[in-house]
Design goal:
The chain has 3 helices and 3 strands, in the order βααββα. Helices cover about 40% and strands about 10% of the residues. The chain is globular and about 35 Å long. The protein has a single domain, classed as Orthogonal Bundle (Multidrug-efflux Transporter Regulator, Chain: A, Domain 2), CATH 1.10.1660.10. By secondary structure, the protein is α+β, with helices and mostly antiparallel strands. The mean pLDDT is about 95. It has a 3-stranded antiparallel β-sheet.
């Protein structure tokens, strides 16, 4: 279940998969499912190609699930 307190993130910040899961209080498989179904959007880091989740998306998904 997603955390009931509003995440304290920077709207312009970039958060890894692990950080996003901890912030939202969800499992990696849940985040993967949300990503696959287009519920939450992500970007790729230019330097290493890893996914990141913008703080604005983390807040948006949290608000939509509450």
């Amino acid at each position: 279940m997603m955390t009931s307190t509003e995440p304290q993130v920077s709207l312009s910040g970039r958060y890894s998969t692990n950080e996003t899961c901890k912030i939202l209080g969800i499992d990696r498989s849940t985040l993967f499912r949300y990503t696959k179904n287009g519920i939450i959007k992500f970007g790729y880091r230019r330097c290493n190609g890893r996914k990141f989740y913008p703080g604005s998306e983390i807040i948006r998904i949290w608000k939509s699930m509450m």
